[in-house]
Design brief:
Elements lengths: L9 E6 L13 H10 L14 H12 L3 E6 L14 E3 L4
Antiparallel strand pairs: 1-2, 2-3
Amino acid sequence: MTTQTLYKSYIIEEYQLQEEPFYVPVADEIELFEAAYKQKLPLIFKGPTGCGKTRFVEYMSYRLGLELTRVSKEEGVEDSNNGVNMPLVTIACH
């Protein structure tokens, strides 16, 4: 008989930014984000490491006065997705 773990552990952080994060708009991403937020549409940000996805979400969280929730894998937990660890950052739309 083998023992198999049927759950995963995650670290969940909730925080509200106290200072405005530095962010320089590139195009109309702020207006697009605000329109999607007002319509309660989910967004997914895709891009290479370091391109500003997290910074943009932090900036929009600050701009809208909303708490930010970050979910990431707990240290020492084995990956079941071929070593790819993708953090989840959310801003509630309701």
